[in-house]
Design goal:
The structure holds two protein chains of two kinds.
Chain A lengths: L10 E4 L4 E5 L6 H17 L4 E6 L3 E6 L6 H12 L11 E7 L8 H8 L3 H8 L4 E6 L6 E4 L14 E4 L3 E5 L2 E4 L4 E3 L2 E5 L20 E7 L1 H12 L6 E2 L4
Parallel strand pairs in A: 5-13
Antiparallel strand pairs in A: 1-2, 2-4, 3-4, 5-14, 6-7, 6-13, 8-11, 9-10, 9-12
Chain B lengths: L1 E6 L5 E3 L19 H10 L8 E4 L5 E5 L2 E7 L5 E4 L4 E3 L5 E4 L3 E4 L8 E5 L33 E3 L10 E3 L12 E5 L8 H9 L2 E7 L3 E5 L14 E2 L4 E3 L7 E3 L6 E2 L3 E5 L4 H6 L5 E2 L1 E3 L2 H20 L2 E3 L5 H6 L8
Helix pairs in contact in B: 1-4
Classes of the chains: A alpha+beta, B alpha+beta.
């Protein structure tokens, strides 16, 4: 007879001899993500020799390390005391006010989302721009943020047919999260708008705009404004970072 | 001070040991899929081991030397370098070689390996992106204009001439070609698979399919059955992770893998065997062997020691007699 034992968290998972996973759950949960980022912050602060990178995701932390400098058991020994003693995150993150044009031309899926959710397009735009959101994690593509948590109207599954090419700067939604495509890429989320802002630009001094923990609020703009802001950004005359979002 | 691309070959990119510390921003590590071959190539031409080389997969380029002299070495393969347009002849891989201005050379089809490296003394004069020269083509990061080489490119070099020293060659080629099963550690999502699939994964040969690129290698062998579905909430990915999508055919992820992903990862290839994974080519067959974390750590130290002994075992190579250059410099007139 086998016993069904509920997994206990946090748990160390094996990921070869160059990465260690600290898992806090297997589902999307804002509080799990927050704990993961607290641990990321604590590990980063320790500045452990041999740790190469610290990657928080929705549900676990991956610590990349160099096995020539650090063994798995030594790393677990250093990380373990942190688990029971996580501090609040230091709020040194940035706030971004991100303009988005939700007009048809940039929003191929907004009509579908409107029908499926039985919500007017105006209301979808209002709900998408309503809240101050948080960057949960970075992944999938360079500079690609997972942002949330959106209002319940955006609790949508992914599209049945993923698209092969999604243009950069596209704003997409699924599972109460939203994101901004940074480079031309395939993808399965619903496209409801476009921003004139590059979240990744190889030619900028700092190519990547946002970090996990940053806060974002979207702001609806008309296409004429989209074109103006695009030109202003090119001329270096548009500031996206703000002190306060509300 | 450059090398000019006469014929680009296929998907030739600039790669060093990658940018491992920006994965938290979604930036893939990139870098050589076979780091051992890159290190040995650099050592043959007198470079630091982490300098950028040209990574060649499948078909190599034809190039012309546009500096006074360049010292080259081709590693990761036993294919010869063909000298054309200028002096003619063939030069073996795995040894250094000095070519003069105007000399053209061709690296043909790499039939014996999934990746080869062309190292040039002094390396390339290219800008670093996030601390590395490695090319990540999908996002146009690094390398030469963020892309694979095309005809007419002139890749700038750091040196116009070569150091005056003897040529070197690898004396023990077998030592660069490690054998035996590919070693893995199970996890992070072993528990997503049926026990019989785990046994089959260890007990059966898998072959390398044509779907093999810098991002990963799709394997062909027994289908692995998921016990708990094949969609997971995305978590981190490490080089060597063996992810299994809905088809049940495993994919070993290599240098250009995404930083996070939503397929269960049954096991991870240990770092000591990553360079071997990078050398595999379509049609090759492998078998997996489970090891413990401490065995993996020992294996990695052993692997690094092996690279170091290949390098310390270099012997002097006969310099290539560049007759044209000798005539131009009038060095042998006295013997006529």
């Amino acid at each position: 007879m086998s016993l069904e034992i509920a997994p206990t968290y946090p748990a160390f998972l094996s990921a070869g001899d160059t990465a260690l996973v600290v898992q806090y759950g297997e589902v999307v949960d804002v509080s799990i993500n927050r704990t993961v980022r607290q641990l990321a912050f604590a590990v980063r602060k320790l500045n452990i020799k041999g740790v190469v990178d610290i990657v928080p995701t929705m549900r676990s932390l991956m610590i990349h390390y160099d096995p020539l400098f650090l063994s798995k058991s030594a790393l677990i020994e250093v990380v373990t005391p942190l688990l029971s003693n996580l501090e609040e995150l230091e709020e040194n993150n940035k706030n971004w006010l991100i303009p988005v044009c939700y007009e048809d031309e940039f929003a191929p899926d907004i009509n579908d989302v409107s029908k499926v959710t039985n919500t007017t397009i105006d209301e979808i735009v209002r709900q998408h721009t309503l809240l101050e959101l948080e960057v949960f994690m970075m992944g999938f593509l360079p500079g690609f943020p997972y942002v949330g948590l959106l209002p319940e109207v955006f609790d949508l599954p992914r599209r049945i047919e993923p698209r092969v090419h999604i243009p950069p700067r596209s704003i997409s939604v699924a599972a109460r999260q939203t994101t901004i495509y940074t480079i031309n890429s395939p993808g399965g989320w619903h496209l409801i708008g476009r921003t004139p802002v590059d979240f990744y630009d190889a030619n900028r001094d700092e190519p990547i705009l946002v970090r996990a923990g940053d806060r974002i609020k979207f702001q609806a703009i008309a296409k004429s404004e989209f074109i103006e802001i695009e030109a202003d950004i090119k001329a270096g005359a548009f500031n996206l970072e703000v002190k306060e979002l509300l | 001070m450059s090398v000019r691309v006469v014929d680009p070959g296929f998907n030739v990119t600039v790669q060093d040991l990658g940018r491992p510390s920006f994965q938290h921003l979604g930036v893939p590590v990139s870098g050589a899929v076979s780091p051992a071959a890159l290190k040995i190539g650099n050592a043959l031409v007198g470079n630091d081991q982490n300098m950028a080389c040209l990574e060649i997969r499948l078909i190599g380029p034809t190039m012309e030397v546009l500096c006074d002299a360049a010292r080259l070495a081709l590693t990761g393969t036993n294919i010869e370098i063909e000298l054309i347009g200028g002096s003619r002849g063939f030069q073996p891989a795995n040894q250094s070689l000095v070519l003069r201005r105007g000399q053209k050379f061709k690296i043909g089809t790499i039939s014996d390996s999934g990746s080869a490296y062309l190292a040039i003394e002094g390396g390339f004069r290219l800008p670093q992106v996030y601390g590395s020269l490695s090319t990540y083509v999908r996002a146009n990061i690094g390398g030469f204009l963020g892309r694979a080489l095309i005809e007419g490119d002139e890749i700038p070099l750091n040196k116009n001439d070569v150091e005056d020293r003897s040529e070197l060659r690898v004396s023990n080629l077998e030592a660069t070609e490690e054998k035996g099963p590919i070693r893995i550690i199970f996890g992070p999502q072993k528990d997503f698979f049926k026990e019989e699939s785990i046994q089959e994964f260890l007990g059966s040969p898998y072959s390398i399919t044509r779907e093999a690129d810098r991002m990963g290698i799709r394997l062909d062998g027994p289908v692995l059955k998921h016990e708990r579905g094949y969609n997971i909430v995305s978590d981190g990915i490490v080089t060597g992770a063996i992810q299994v999508p809905g088809t049940g055919q495993p994919i070993v992820l290599l240098a250009d893998h995404q930083t996070t992903g939503g397929y269960p990862k049954m096991a991870t290839v240990i770092s000591a065997d990553i360079s071997r994974m990078g050398r595999l080519k379509p049609g090759d067959t492998i078998q997996f062997l489970e090891v413990t974390a401490s065995e993996a750590e020992e294996a990695r130290f052993e692997h690094e020691k092996n690279i170091a002994s290949v390098i310390s075992g270099f012997v002097k190579a006969d310099p290539w007699l560049d007759e044209r250059a000798l005539y131009t410099e009038n060095l042998i007139s006295g013997f006529l």
